[in-house]
Amino acid sequence: MSTDNNHPTRWKPGQSGNPRGRPGKASEFRDELRKMGPKALKAIKAGIEAGDAACLKIWADRCDPANKATMQTVEFIADTTDLTQFSMSVLVAISKGEVPPDVGNQIINAAASAARVADLDEIRREMEELLQMVEEIKNGKA
C-alpha cells in the first residue's frame, strides 16, 4: 500500500474527506417528501385511511412533534459553605422524594464544579502571593 501524500486523491493530514458528515436517513426522507410536496401528503393521507401505522406516525410526528425533555425546576435551600454537608443534604432530599434523582445528581455535580473553580481561584491567589514574595526576596526587601 502506497503512503504517497502527494497523490491527487489523498486528503491532507487532518482534513476530512466529508466535512459535513454522512447525511442521516431521516434527512434524506424529509428531502424526498419536500420534493414530492402535495403528492406526499395525499399518499400519507391515503395510507392513514388504509390503516397504515407508519403513515399515521409520519403525520403525528409532523403535526405534533415530541417535546424535548427539560429538567424540572426545584427549590432547594442548602448551606453551601460545607460542600460535603451540602451534597449529603441533596442525597437526603432525593431519598425523601423532594428532589428527583437525576436533578439531585446535577445539583451535586454543579456544586463539585463550583468547588473546583473556587479551588483554582485560591491556587491562583496563592501563586500570586508566592511570586510577589519571591520578587521581594530578589529585590532585597525581605
Task: State the separation between the terminal residues, measured CA to CA.
Answer: 68 Å
Biggest sheet character? none
- Whole-angstrom Rg: 30 Å
H/E series, N to C?
HHHHH
Inertia-based shape: flat
Low-pLDDT runs: none
Structure report:
It contains 5 helices and no strands. The longest helix has 38 residues, at 101-138. The protein is mainly alpha-helical. Helix 2 crosses helix 3 and helix 4 runs antiparallel to helix 5 (101-138).
Please give the structural blueprint.
Elements: H1 25-36, H2 38-49, H3 53-63, H4 83-95, H5 101-138
Helix pairs in contact: 2-3, 4-5
Keywords:
61% helix, mainly alpha, 142 residues
Give the structure's gist in a few sentences.
This protein is mainly α and 142 residues long.
